[in-house]
Amino acid sequence: MALSFMEGNEALARGAIAAGCNFFAGYPITPATTIFNNMLKMLPPKGGICVQGEDEIASMGYCIGAAMAGKKALTATSGPGISLYSEQISFAIGSEIPLVIADVQRLGPSTGSATRGADSDIQFLRWGSTSGIPVIVLVPKDALDCYVLAVNAFNFAEEFRCPVFIASNKEIGMTRESFDLESVILPEIVNRELFSGDAYLPFESEPDKAPPFLPIGGKTLVRQTSSTHGPDGYITIDPQVIADNQDRLRKKIHSARNRITLHEEDIKKGSDTLIISYGITSRAVEDASAKLEKKGRPVSSLSLKTLWPVPEDLLINKAKSFKRIIVIEMNLGQYVNEIRRVLNDKKVEFYGQMNGVLITPETIMEVVENE
Amino acid sequence: MNSYLNKNRPLVYCPGCTHEKITKGLDIAFSKLNFDADKTVIVTDIGCSGLFDTFFNVHALHGVHGRALTYASGLKLADPELNVIVTMGDGGLGIGGAHVLAACRRNLDITLIILNNFNFGMTGGQYSSTTPTDAVVGSEFLNQAEIPLDICAIADSAGASYIDRCSGINSDLPDKIIAAVNHKGFSIIETLGMCTGRYTKKNKLTPKVIDQIIADLPERAGIVKKNQRPEYGERYRALSKQRTKFPEAVIIDKQIDLKNYQQQQVVILGSAGMRIVTAGDIVCYAGLCAGMNVSMKNDYNITVLRGQSVSEILISPDKIGYPGIESPTVVLALSDEGVQRRKKIFSSLQKETFVLKEKSVAIPNTCANVVEIDFKELKIKKQDWALASLGVIAKHKKAINIDMLTYALKSRFNETVHKMAMETINKIFNHD
Ligand code: SF4
Fold first, then answer.
1. I need a labelling partner for B256 at 20 to 30 A (CA). Which of A143, B72, B162, B364 fits?
2. B-chain residues within 8 Å CB-CB of A69?
3. For residue A147, which of A178, A191, A192, A190 has the smallest C-alpha distance?
4. What is the pTM of this model?
5. Residue A325 is part of which domain span?
6. Which three-class secondary structure state does DSSP give residue B24?
7. Is the CB of B197 under 6 A from ligand 1?
């Protein structure tokens, strides 16, 4: 057997390349910089384009322009960069521009700690844009996930014509680790559906789908706009047209939520407790659960890889048979309220930590044993 | 002449607004240039100048205020065949100043038409970055405390290769636009005009006054000689093309069979400049050569040449979950800074933990098995201490052995570096 050895950021870049990414624009920021470094090494030999914007806002703008010319675009940043991306993210959401945004999270608020990990941006990614239209947020727990989820992210971006976030973490992005790269089976590549009829209206679509795409610069003229638009891409004030479009933007993601739901589970016989976690924390949960089993106290675990849209059906199904639900997060409780909302008939316990260090398996064991 | 204006979208500017003249001027320019509509895109942002894209039968991208140049750059990089025209008011100019500077400096083949009418028309005639100090605008007295900027002078110093300024009203506008568009590289053309809806209600600004303003400013002749250079896209593609080697992933074959290998947790405590991360890498490679799973977390300051450098490595026959170090099996104490950073671990080390301490380094009390070594006496340079310490643990068969280390060094380094590294390792092995 041969193992590969790389940090999560490199794995994410390799996943993006495997997904067919051919454009990257970014701005250096710890702990996301090495995604940029890797793309700069990987894209030119593949005929792709990799540039540094004058700032984060510009980098996202380049990606938007390139995506509208038909490219599969990636950008990477951390919390402070997401703040700057925000106005462009809103544009990409509302105007259905496919792209992938890697957020290698660090400890916030604000500039916070450049080299300390935390799952700081879980609500920010969901709500850090105007209008409240749903977004897709995937969350890796290790380098292997970074590699695979990058492909999922591009596939979702292409299918739903929306920005898709990969909520990584400094502790994944900058941790080097081994995994069996050669035997990974990646999801099949999805590319955006191209319009094939005549009389193209850039935003005309089925009521729960993204519209078919045509690139700016192609034979058919395309209109793209950040303003409230009708199917023709011109500004509209018609309440019905506006309502239909808002509804479709919500529905195209909401109606596919179960397909977008990715997770891992470890259901142990005889356990009455389910630990729900995501990201790097899931790895400490795995270790804690192995140790607890040895001590004769088996617990089950659910590791979420899709945080938005909230995997409601999965949560309900998996939690059904458990008496005790514990949510562990590397923040002070950003996602637990989503879980409480969905599992409203259950008592959901919570442990969170936001001090720049990983939550240890010992701490999780204590939480479980402290009934 | 063939018009590019969309007959279904009549112009909607206030009567007398210079934007109307410029829209028509741009249409004449397009016609004379005989542009393919499907290879032309108008990129706009917010404000009355942001209506431009709606009037033409070409591709259109209308985006967020001040950011038009960012979309334009993405489009042009992705599709070099596109004719990219950006319109922007003095509002977008103020908000997106950084993008204007970057576009000038970069020299991508895009044409920026600035529609300067000295105020924010759409939001109520507030002052902008080009409003004269003595103008009467919708911002009470605020403009009286500032001075307007001259974007042409700024563009000149920012490296724009083509700069022109003209009245938006004069009939030479289409030819000026054509000349700017025909320039290969970033071209910027500032048009001065009247916002009849707001600005000219309280300020005397006539076509004549505009001509006078232009005459009073330094002349702009289009081509800026000192800023001539290759167009960015062409330069970028030429440079990028030379990068032909795709960096394949590091993959390490299992070469050694280890019996009963227990999980190892190695902590290397050093300082910047001691090649701690490289040493950590080598420990990982050593584990990989033996078919083990590995993970490595590094902790160093953002100031790369100063401060601690700590590497924490797990080597395990099983899949690694939590990647932190809970109970180290090997600690390499190579600098005081590094030790200080993790001083808490020493009190909780197990008896079996192997601690290697360089003679000059002080460590807190511990019940672990401490071995001291004097690298200075061995004439090993500080930057090689981390590497040399790997020789020591291999010699003591702690976490790695000499076979693992030898394979690791061979896979990690090229021949020359490998040879030098082996010399250091041999020094350790030949010393008793
Ligand atoms: S407000 Fe001013 S800039 Fe806008 S259309 Fe009217 S005159 Fe023109």
1. A143
2. 74-75, 78-79, 82
3. A178
4. 0.97
5. 264-369
6. helix
7. yes
